[in-house]
């Protein structure tokens, strides 16, 4: 079992595994919405509305402050070809519980165009696409 398969299993029934095609479509939308560096990392200097944190509660508070109520997200691991559709609360709980084991990842909400980039050191960046 690969790490990503283990992560998906850990998320349980709350996560819907996306096909490679669906994953590709969502990742293309993400990469067309946010500026990327060549190292599979968002160029946060070019994102105007953003926050850096290490605390999940701050992510939740920021979303409330931005009046964002949509929480169905796509979770991508940076080194994987598969992604899952999952509720944001489940994705954040997953990172909170497995922080020492988790690969770097993106949590992307395609309907609102916000993204959370999770780094191996536990740092998170959240940003909203310019409209």
From TrEMBL:
Protein name, per record: Uncharacterized protein
Species classification: Bacteria, Bacillati, Bacillota, Bacilli, Bacillales
């Amino acid at each position: 079992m690969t790490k990503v398969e283990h992560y998906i299993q850990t998320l349980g029934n709350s996560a819907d595994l996306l096909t490679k095609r669906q994953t590709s479509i969502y990742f293309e939308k993400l990469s067309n919405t946010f500026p990327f560096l060549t190292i599979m990392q968002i160029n946060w200097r070019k994102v105007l509305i953003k926050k850096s944190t290490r605390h999940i509660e701050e992510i939740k508070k920021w979303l409330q402050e931005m009046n964002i109520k949509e929480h169905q997200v796509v979770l991508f691991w940076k080194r994987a070809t598969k992604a899952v559709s999952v509720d944001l609360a489940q994705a954040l709980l997953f990172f909170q519980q497995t922080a020492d084991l988790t690969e770097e990842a993106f949590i992307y909400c395609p309907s609102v165009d916000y993204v959370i980039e999770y780094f191996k050191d536990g740092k998170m960046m959240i940003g909203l696409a310019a409209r």
